[in-house]
Amino acid sequence: MLHTHLSAGNCPARKEVSCMTEIKLKKGEPVDRALRRLKKKVDREGTLKVVRGHRHFEKPSEKRRRKEKAARFSAMLTARYADL
After folding, report:
1. Do residues 43 and 63 touch, judged by C-beta distance below 8 A?
2. CA gap 69, 3 in Å, rounded
3. Does an H or E element contain 40, and which?
4. What share of the chain is helix, strand, coil (3-state, %, to 5)?
5. Using CA atoms, how far apart are residues 58 and 66, in angstroms rounded to an integer?
6. Residue 21 has what pLDDT?
7. What pLDDT digit, counting tens, does each position of 28-67 carry?
8. What are phi and psi of 9, to 5 degrees?
């Protein structure tokens, strides 16, 4: 039996609220194309990144260091391509 929608992921906002990434199959659309759309949507929403981040505990100091490193990298890219 083929379901009319594909879902993946979870919502990190609150535990009691369940958010699922969902796409609707279009009439006559192959499942592999719908699966590709689902994967793109999950990637854009950052669902997998959040799930992978919850695999192990991250100390607040590690989280702060990681965010500072990302900010430095972003600032470096902004400075590098500012004159373009």
Report:
1. no
2. 43
3. helix 31-45
4. 50, 10, 40
5. 10
6. 87
7. 999 999 999 999 999 999 988 888 989 999 999 999 999 9
8. 90, 180
